[in-house]
Amino acid sequence: MLSIIKEFLLKTKTSKKVLIDASKIITEALVQSGADVFIAYPITPSNKFYTYGQMRFPQFLAGPDEISVLQWMAGYSAAGKLPVSATAFPGLALMTETLNMAYMMELPMVLIITQRLGPSTGSATTGAQGDLKFLDGVISGGFPMPIFSPSDFNDAWTLSNEAVKTAVKFRTPVIILTSKEMVMTQKSFDVNTLEPLEKVDRTPKAFDPPYLPYKSGKDMVPTFYPLGNDEHEVRFNSSTHDNEGLIRKGNPESMANTMRLREKLEKRIDEYTFFDLDAEAGATDLIVSWGISADAARDTVTNMRKKGKKVSLLLVKTILPISPKIYEIIDSYETVIFAEENMTGQYKEMLFGKRNSSKIKTATKFGGMLAPSEIEAIVNKK
Fold this sequence. Notes:
Mean pLDDT: 94
């Protein structure tokens, strides 16, 4: 196995193609961005993150189970570290309670979810895109959590950096949503196309004294100080709390603090909204895709344009919260086809519900990867 350090740090001016998978790219990007501890319990198909995490992170902890992993991550984050873990749906299900705790406590961390075929343990070595609707409601009360989904190796690099930035900037857990095919399948790739990344600045930002651990300014994000610092008293609380971090449920300040968790992410959504729009002049059909299905969607557009068919392509990279810009793009086309590797078209259902219409169509595949011909057939179906 090629050394990660050799692949990424010994860069040359010429092309440098290596066989590589997105697990390695995401791991390196997170480390270069300043994530400093990897904590995990091994699970297929996130195994390679476990292997690479031992090699690259300054600190590595092997958890006895997924519940402990998220508890440890919360502790490390409260102490000023930026923790990372990787799992699949069975592990995520066990982590959900602590993920809600970390969200309420406003603890920065990054969680990589590698999707696989369900339900339950399903098929651990078969890819899928079936976790999206669960993630849409994973925070109790319908609160949003930033979720990025890379569509290729370049996205894996840049979105991992954005995940760390977003976790720190907004004091929140962030998810990188990927799939078995992307993180386990090696491809020939020129690693010199990836620009070196700078560590995200985690210096506590200025605030109006006195310091209160949950008092925010105009940016709606409280200044973060870790436990054990020498300057200020710090309190973290996962129950409804006021600016001091004290449980005062009947206090209007406490409820305002809870509502702020939504507002800080939704009102500033443009700061972390990413997508690619390949708009063809005169096209009335739009293909929408995300994650691993983007490969088939790209090929579909290329093939159809060669045949003289006008079609546009939207690849969504910030899956949640849903930006109004996504609706604006979709509304500008007569027919929209969602290409996803799940049974019902989960991203489509998140945007438009289960009701079908003549404008909204789905090209889906369960238990296998979508083929460009299958997407094209839905586009051409009248």
